[in-house]
Design a protein that fits this description.
Order of helices and strands of chain A: HHEEEEEEEEH
Number of helices of chain A: 3
Helix content of chain B: over 70%
Largest interface: A-B, 28 and 31 residues
Largest sheet of chain B: none
Distance between the termini of chain B: 53 Å
Order of helices and strands of chain B: HHHHHHHHHH
Number of domains of chain A: 2
Number of domains of chain B: 1
Shape of chain B: elongated
Radius of gyration of chain B: 22 Å
Strand content of chain B: under 5%
Helix content of chain A: 25-40%
Structural class of chain A: alpha/beta
Strand content of chain A: 25-35%
Radius of gyration of chain A: 24 Å
Oligomer: heterodimer
């Protein structure tokens, strides 16, 4: 009887340790703790060019992460990219005239959506659209423009 | 007639392989059909969770910690050349949770517990204990194989979670403790990039699949072994080799399905 009891205790400890490890992976390693404080709300933004922005890219204001890119779709009427931003529920006072830019983290880093706050007393709510947007900088286009300007200078 | 002999041999081995797959599937169906009976006798399951799970904890914990430490060292070596040593946490955690945790755990369990299962069942067959059970009107598949199968299937994801968690701690120990990566950046970047559903849950699904495959192969090889000492020895070798190959091949398929796009 004693050995059965020891086995049962050890198996119980084993299952508890396994669940604890899974809990550790969920809360400490993955983003579940960030998603736990409510699902947040969605904002829409239209961009002429999103560069290499991806679903799950970060959305930040003043360098602090407020949410993530939830979906990217293409609007066939305006030929623009429609980006859905999922903002964490705690950040519910984003001014209505906020500016959305797509920046690159570092020279070769991934792209993210940076929000610059406006001065409006009204706040954006679930499903609202950010009116002012600026597209991603495409390096090839900038180099092309630079070469074009140089050539124009040279011909004068 | 002599000319056709190689062709006949090829056909024989092909048919034998097909018959083996068929027997393995029939056995799996019989094992799973014993589940309701097992739920009435949970003590049988607990004994198997002990011998497959608890007794594997030490090897899993030690290997997980060391694999994590090696990942930390190697990752730091490459990432620091690009000035991205802060991303060490993502590298260690993502590779452990997605790939190394489930796969290495499955290989270790196949070597430690799978071989033991095959030898045990094979020896039971060789010493006619299985026939003796049948004589007493006890179904050996339901009584012997079903608890072992579900013990393995339940133990595998728990062991894989322990492996990954200790591996992340090992990577953290080397990166933050020894090499001076910033603690906040290590966890912050990891949490920003590792998704619960996409990475952690898919890793758990992987390890459940590996648990089914490894214990299934081990039990089938034991049950199907030639009942001699040489037969049991061959079956034990085959069990480990087949389980390792199946885990690695399945891992490729699962990774392509889960993270392919």
């Amino acid at each position: 009887m004693g050995t059965t009891r020891t086995t049962e205790i050890l198996v119980g400890a084993f299952i508890a340790a396994g669940c604890l490890a899974l809990f550790f992976l969920a809360m400490r390693v993955s983003n579940l703790s960030a998603a736990a404080n409510g699902d947040g709300y969605a904002l829409m933004a239209r961009f002429d060019n999103i560069g290499s922005l991806k679903v799950r890219s970060p959305v930040s204001m003043a360098g602090v992460r407020l949410g993530r890119v939830e979906a990217i779709t293409f609007d066939q009427d305006s030929y623009q990219a429609v980006v859905t931003l999922r903002i964490d529920a705690g950040y519910d006072r984003i001014p209505a005239d906020t500016f959305a830019n797509i920046y690159t983290a570092g020279l070769l880093g991934e792209q993210y959506v940076a929000l610059d706050p406006g001065g409006s007393p009204d706040y954006l709510g679930d499903g609202d659209q950010i009116e002012h947007t600026q597209s991603a900088l495409v390096l090839e286009r900038m180099i092309g423009q630079f070469l074009f300007n140089k050539a124009a200078e040279g011909s004068e | 007639m002599m000319l056709l002999e190689p062709l006949a041999r090829l056909g024989r081995s092909g048919l034998a392989a097909l018959a083996g797959i068929g027997r393995a599937n029939l056995l799996l169906a019989a094992i799973v059909a014993g589940l309701p009976e097992l739920l009435l006798k949970p003590r049988l399951l607990i004994a198997q969770l002990y011998s497959i799970g608890v007794l594997s904890v030490l090897i899993i914990a030690v290997s997980g910690f060391f694999v994590g430490m090696v990942l930390g060292l190697q990752g730091y070596y490459v990432l620091s050349q690009f000035g991205a040593a802060e991303s060490l946490g993502i590298m260690v955690a993502a590779s452990l949770v997605r790939e190394l945790g489930p796969v290495v755990t499955a290989l270790l369990v196949a070597g430690r517990a799978g071989s033991a299962l095959t030898a045990e069942i094979g020896l039971m067959k060789a010493t006619e204990q299985l026939s003796a059970l049948e004589m007493m009107a006890v179904d050996p598949v339901r009584r012997i194989l079903t608890p072992r199968f579900f013990g393995g299937v339940l133990a595998m994801p728990l062991l894989a979670a322990m492996f990954s968690a200790l591996g992340v701690l090992g990577g953290w120990f080397v990166g933050v403790g020894l090499l001076g990566v910033d603690d906040g950046a290590f966890w912050g970047q990891t949490q920003a990039k590792v998704d619960f559903r996409e990475d952690v849950l898919n890793g758990v699904i992987k390890s459940i699949v590996f648990g089914v495959v490894v214990t299934w192969i081990a039990l089938f090889q034991g049950y199907d072994a030639t009942p001699t000492s040489a037969g049991v020895s061959r079956a034990t070798t085959r069990s480990v080799v087949h389980a390792a190959l199946a885990v690695l091949a399945l891992d490729f398929v699962l990774t392509a399905l889960m993270f392919g796009d």
